[in-house]
Amino acid sequence: MEYVSPEGLRLDGRRPKEVRQLKCELAVLHRADGSAYLEMGNTKVLATVYGPHEVSQRSQSLHDRALVHCEYSMATFSTGERRRRPKGDRRSVELSLVIRQSMEAAILTHLLPRTQIDIYVQVLQADGGTRAACINAATLALADAGVPMRDLVASCAAGYLNGTPLLDLNYVEDSAGGPDLTVALLPKAEKVTLLQMDSKLPLDTFEAVLGLAMDGCKAIAAHMRQALLEHTRKQAVVRGPVRL
Amino acid sequence: MDSQLEAEAFKRIYPEEYFQRFLSEGTRPDGRPLGRARSTTIGFGAVSTADGSALVKIGSTTLLAGIKLEVMTPTAEAPDAGKIAATFEMPPLCSPDARPERRLEETSVVVQQVMNAIESAGLVNTKELLISTGKAAWVAYLDIYCLDADGSLLDAALLAAVAAFADLTLPPVRVNPEGHVLPVLSGAQGGNLRENGDASSEVVTVERRKLTLGAMPWAATIGLYKGHLIVDPTAEEEALLESTVTTILDEAGRLISLFKPGGITAVTTALIQDCVELTRHRARELKQILEESSQEDEDEGDESQ
Q1: Which residues is A45 bridged to in the sheet?
Q2: Which residues contact B159 (CB under 8 A, 6 or more apart)?
Q3: Engineered SS bond to A3: which of A161, B217, B242, B279, CB 3.0-4.6 Å?
Q4: SS3 B100
Q5: A86 is in which domain, residue-wise?
Q6: CA–CA distance, A108 with B133 (Å, rounded to integer)
Q7: Does B19 touch chain A (CB under 8 A)?
Q8: How many domains in chain A?
Q9: Alpha-carbon gap, residue B281 to B283, rounded angstroms
């Protein structure tokens, strides 16, 4: 199958180095401490943050830093086939861990000892790149909750099909069997917090794909920061000037 | 700023007194009069991977319902009918209190009530889900996700279920003589003739269609508190209420279900009649909202075409 046309266009009409349309909304749920809704093309995810609050199981409490707890689940109707087990399967557990670890790298956990931060990520519609979308949504929800962080974590996937490095794969491209490289980045420090790939790729090509994914992360980070600033500005207007 | 802080502290320490002071003025903490429900919105087709979906918001209570279709062999008892299977999920993101065991009971009650209401109202004729008698029929898996639990979940769940069925489209399929159901590819709509041509003449094509819905059930939850009737309580209010009565009516205003899950006050018949009357009013409101939103949805669809 041809994933990049001779004109250099992909199946959904994007150029190889183009990310899908990104849409983010903050504070969508009122009862949560922080929440964010994020769309990357047709992938739609909702992230919610509760906390920092008291550790629910006291034995898990950490005396020098916050406990970060993350749960990932997919809606049964989010994929082409109906999912029988929306959470608790091996993939969900792995993804929960991946999201938690990349968030822990950014949260200043040492400032919040003996507390717990819950991150819940729900995939509502999946079209490839759920991993990256979940990480991005989780960062925004954490920012909305006011959890202290080093930087926003931005994540993006990249792949390599038809001899072309492609940015931000959708489901069809993802299931083409080529490599799928997910990167999460702390954009200010340009430090990678997550790098995942399970496929073969020559080293020099890998570098090109990694470079592309990192550029994607930076573009997404800029967009998310913009959304965050806009949201904060709106809130500042709603709340009025702060008097001390 | 200071007075606001004081009010907040008073609410935390004396939630009952806080609530009562509002009630004595004939109003509620969110500014609504006792008999008014929160503003309600319905978004059709919120999830494109589902065959039918709807996002319902009642105040900040948010529910997402999605229907996925699968093919099954009809049972021997009902060879000409499909079926509906429903679940109601409250993922931990929907509310700040983490008590999974209590949630399990609540979700089971909601899904059972929703299914009963859909069945007794006759919203969906399961015979419409038939593809080929005795060979194939659709199972409609209705999954309702609670994204924000801020009270009156049953009302919102039923509304989401009804809206998702209103949005449901049965995809076009072909049935070969062995009873296997094959999808008709979306790109091949013009090529239908050709496909029929090269397959055997016994292939039956079932067109893409919407369901013809029967009477729609409408629900309203009414909270009882010291002789006051409080329509559409929020989670905050529900925690204080003595009891709730959920009434489900069909389009003609007939009573489908009455649900009063215990509580400290026993109710009189007169009170129940008041509840039914309030629900009747809310049902008219909900019906109008559903019609308006589906009209808007159609208009948008026309524009995009």
Answers
A1: A38, A123
A2: B40, B42, B56, B58, B63, B218, B219, B286, B290
A3: A161
A4: helix
A5: 22-239
A6: 62
A7: no
A8: 1
A9: 5
Whether residue A228 is contained in a domain is answered as yes
Q: Is residue A6 part of a domain?
A: no
Say whether B53 and A80 touch across the interface (CB within 8 A).
Answer: no
pLDDT digits (tens, 9 = 90+) for B177-236: 777 888 876 554 444 444 444 444 456 777 888 889 999 999 999 999 988 999 999 999
Per-residue pLDDT tens over the stretch B56-71 = 999 999 999 999 999 9
Query: Within 10 A of A176 (CB to CB), how many other CB atoms are there?
Result: 16
ipTM of the complex: 0.87
CA A231 to chain B, closest CA, distance in angstroms equals 19
DSSP of chain A: --SB-TTS-BTTS--TT-PPPEEEEE---SSSSEEEEEEETTEEEEEEEEEEEE-SSGGG--SSS-EEEEEEEE-TTSSSSPPS-SSSSHHHHHHHHHHHHHHHTTB-GGGSTTEEEEEEEEEEE-SS-HHHHHHHHHHHHHHHHT--BSS--EEEEEEEETTEEEES--HHHHTTSS-EEEEEEETTTTEEEEEE--S---HHHHHHHHHHHHHHHHHHHHHHHHHHHHHHHHHHHHH-----
Is A168 inside a domain boundary? Answer: yes
| Chain B residue nearest residue A240, CA to CA | B1
In a domain, A15, yes or no: no
A72 at B interface, C-beta within 8 A: no
CATH of the domain at A77: 3.30.230.70
